[in-house]
Design a protein that fits this description.
The chain has about 250 residues and is an alpha+beta fold. It folds into 2 domains: about 5-75, 3-Layer(aba) Sandwich (Rossmann fold), CATH 3.40.50.720; about 80-235, Lactate dehydrogenase/glycoside hydrolase, family 4, C-terminal (L-2-Hydroxyisocaproate Dehydrogenase, Chain A, domain 2). It has helices spanning about 20-40, 55-65, 80-95, 125-130, 135-140, 140-145, 150-155, 160-175, 225-250, and strands spanning about 5-10, 45-50, 75, 100, 105, 115, 120, 125, 185-190, 200-210, 215. The strands form 4 sheets. A 3-stranded parallel β-sheet has the order 1-2-3. A 3-stranded antiparallel β-sheet has the order 4-7-8. Strand 5 and strand 6 (about 115) form a beta hairpin. It catalyses: (S)-malate + NAD(+) = oxaloacetate + NADH + H(+).
Length: about 250
């Protein structure tokens, strides 16, 4: 009752041999119920962070079923991916992670996400110059961040729960207290059409936060290869959304 921040960690994960539609149908049911509970009980300006996968589309289902909660107050977690990208660059350059800034996670919290270093810096120096290895940045860096969750499960037999919890704290703190001057973070938010992404999708963007509000960083130049990666992850989110809406329609 009267909750100000809701962190949604409950969901139904896909298991071996299961069809995507079956998994989506289960998550649609879960997030319809969660939406109803929040509508009925939460503070009217509740801030929601969806963590359970498929995080972006679970957030979209929640938003669809909780019309009284402002759309901008429903987000999903891509800060874990953002932190992993910072960590990879720090390790590669032998730098403290605190001086790596302004990487971006675009799109879906899935293996189609695009970890983008083109606007980031290490100690004020462009990441591409500091790393000085475009082959790595355009290849292994991207796939390592995209597939880090699976690699951790394979290595320890369990998910990266502590890293995810830490990322939730980072996400909420920046949202409530504001991002540091001159830097942004990555959050899955309801698209307003920025960077040509379909309106209404829950899509990870670079954002700055102040006064408890987030704002998409505008005007960043996007090169051809990056634009194609943004389109690929958007297409996956459209497919997920359509599947979720089909499951919703079948339940009615």
């Amino acid at each position: 009752k009267d909750v100000d921040v809701a962190v949604m960690v409950g969901g139904y994960p896909r298991k071996a041999g299961e069809e995507r539609k079956d998994v989506m149908a289960k998550n649609v049911s879960i997030y319809q119920q969660q939406a109803s509970a929040l509508e009925a009980n939460a503070s009217k300006d509740v801030k929601v962070v969806v963590v359970a996968n498929p995080a972006n589309t679970n957030a979209l289902i929640l938003a669809e079923n909780a019309p009284s909660i402002p759309r901008e107050n429903i987000t999903c977690l891509t800060r874990l991916d953002h932190n992993r990208a910072l960590g990879q660059v720090a390790e590669r350059t032998g730098s403290h992670v605190g001086i790596v800034k302004n990487v971006i996670i675009w799109g879906n919290h899935s293996s189609t996400q695009y970890p983008d270093v083109n606007h980031g810096t290490v100690g004020g120096k462009p990441i591409r110059s500091a790393v000085n290895d475009d082959t790595w940045l355009n290849g292994d860096f991207i796939t390592t961040v995209q597939q880090r969750g699976a690699a951790i499960i394979k290595a320890r037999g369990l998910s990266s729960a502590l890293s995810a919890a830490n990322a939730v704290c980072n996400h909420v703190r920046d949202w409530v207290r504001g991002t540091p001057g001159g830097s942004w973070t990555s959050m899955g938010v309801v698209s307003d059409g920025s960077y040509g992404v379909q309106r209404g999708l829950v899509y990870s963007y670079p954002v700055t936060c102040a006064g408890g509000k987030w704002k998409v960083v505008q005007g960043l130049p996007i090169d051809g290869p990056s634009r194609e990666r943004l389109r690929v992850t958007e297409a996956e989110l459209v497919e997920e959304r359509d599947l979720a809406l089909q499951c919703l329609a079948e339940k009615k």
